[in-house]
Backbone:
């Protein structure tokens, strides 16, 4: 028997608690993109408009921080309504980290669908990541994207962002019965999913980079209690971003608080904690 | 010697076509889609600032109750995702819903009569009234600022550029369509500095 078992009693299994919640949130967020243009176009219910580049809920406007930042930088003018519309997403990222990526982003939803299909075909519970790139590429993607946009004088992420494109393509399909060519980017991102889980989100998404940067000292983190850990490594294999949770990487900038590692821990050594201002 | 000059000619041709190709592609990537009868929604910032400011969120497209605002795609280069109105297909009815939802100030709130999406220009050679073919005054009848933006002078329609909003109702209604798709009254986009 595992000698550690006596010391850390096996917590009753609540497998997939966060996974279920997160899949519900992702599915709901995706369904909003699908149902909302239909409501807008066919029934004239316009209370909610837009997608995750800019969402209008009644009079409340939300603007994706990176798109807003690009617009403000290139226009070289402070436009207060844009700043106000960016405030809520930024506040969420400041407190909770990259939760948009793991709990709302439509690319995440589609990628999880692809991952599920891949799992079913392979008949495996753990998928191997074939191509591991350095995670620092994420910062390069953010800086490179902003620099290139400023040099060209035209924001690039606003019309080439895969999360935004999902919403735009769905809207175009419903409003104009046609699709835009740039939608192949979404297919490319999903095809990369067959090589490595979330490789786009891990290393190439400028929006993910910005949210990670804002969430550097986020309050919500996955806490790893070393004294309960048996070192089984299930959390490391479960992490869709390939973080070594058992080495404490869940507190790094890259973690997006999806909770997959918590679900896979049989010994209750991982949990979400709300850390105070000081104990970083 | 002859071979050398031939090689030189070949080289300069290749370099020339490469440069030409690059500049052409570059121009195609950045060329504005705004031309005659292809206009930005009301209250837009100057066209050279539009591409940088607009975040392609599509709120104006979704909010347009007449579906006159369409969305461009990647074939328009960096203008992909920006809104455009093809006035001869569906004109702008100046409902001013789009200017209220724009989150970036690319479209700014503007009064109906202060909108300057462009200016109507009558082609006096093809216009039925001016050519003396018929007593047509369709453009005058449909103009939302009838008598102010389009006035009748001796039964001939005349545009008053100072009052024309460029909404395109006249272009849409004009019964004369030429082979190139233009009408006898067309909307020319605003020149620099005259936009609102």
Residues:
């Amino acid at each position: 028997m595992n000698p550690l078992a006596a010391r850390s009693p096996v917590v009753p299994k609540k497998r997939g608690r966060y996974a279920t919640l997160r899949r519900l949130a992702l599915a709901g967020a995706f369904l909003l993109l699908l149902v909302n243009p239909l409501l807008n176009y066919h029934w004239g219910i316009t209370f909610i408009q837009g997608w995750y580049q800019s969402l209008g809920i009644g009079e409340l406007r939300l603007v994706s921080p990176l798109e807003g930042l690009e617009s403000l930088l290139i226009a070289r003018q402070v436009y207060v309504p844009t700043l106000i519309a960016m405030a809520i997403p930024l506040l969420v990222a400041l407190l909770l980290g990259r939760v948009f990526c793991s709990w709302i982003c439509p690319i995440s939803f589609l990628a999880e669908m692809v991952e599920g299909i891949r799992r079913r075909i392979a008949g495996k519970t753990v998928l191997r990541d074939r191509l591991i790139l350095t995670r620092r590429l994420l910062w390069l993607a953010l800086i490179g994207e902003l620099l290139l946009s400023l040099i060209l004088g035209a924001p690039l992420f606003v019309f080439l962002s895969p999360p935004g494109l999902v919403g735009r393509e769905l809207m175009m399909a419903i409003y104009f019965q046609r699709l835009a060519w740039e939608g192949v980017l979404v297919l490319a991102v999903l095809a990369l999913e067959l090589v490595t889980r979330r490789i786009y989100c891990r290393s190439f998404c400028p929006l993910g980079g910005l949210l990670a940067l804002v969430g550097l000292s986020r309050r919500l983190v996955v806490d790893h209690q070393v004294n309960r850990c048996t070192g089984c490594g299930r959390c490391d294999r479960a992490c869709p971003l390939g973080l070594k949770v058992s080495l404490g990487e869940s507190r790094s900038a890259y973690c997006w608080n999806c909770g997959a590692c918590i679900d896979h821990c049989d010994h209750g050594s991982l949990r979400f904690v709300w850390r105070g201002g000081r104990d970083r | 010697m002859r071979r050398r000059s031939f090689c030189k000619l070949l080289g300069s041709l290749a370099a020339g076509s490469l440069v030409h190709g690059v500049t052409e592609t570059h121009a195609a990537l950045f060329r504005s889609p705004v031309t005659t009868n292809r206009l930005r929604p009301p209250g837009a910032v100057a066209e050279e600032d539009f591409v940088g400011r607009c975040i392609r969120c599509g709120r104006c497209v979704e909010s347009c109750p007449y579906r006159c605002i369409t969305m461009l795609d990647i074939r328009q280069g960096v203008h992909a995702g920006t809104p455009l109105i093809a006035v001869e297909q569906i004109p702008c009815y100046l409902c001013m819903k789009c200017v209220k939802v724009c989150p970036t100030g690319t479209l700014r709130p503007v009064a109906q009569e202060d909108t300057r999406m462009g200016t109507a220009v009558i082609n006096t050679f093809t216009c039925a009234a001016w050519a003396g073919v018929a007593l047509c005054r369709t453009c005058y009848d449909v103009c939302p600022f009838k008598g102010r933006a389009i006035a009748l002078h001796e039964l001939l329609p005349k545009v008053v550029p100072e009052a024309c909003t460029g909404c395109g109702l006249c272009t849409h209604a004009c019964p004369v369509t030429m082979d190139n798709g233009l009408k006898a009254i067309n909307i020319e986009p605003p020149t620099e500095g005259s936009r609102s």
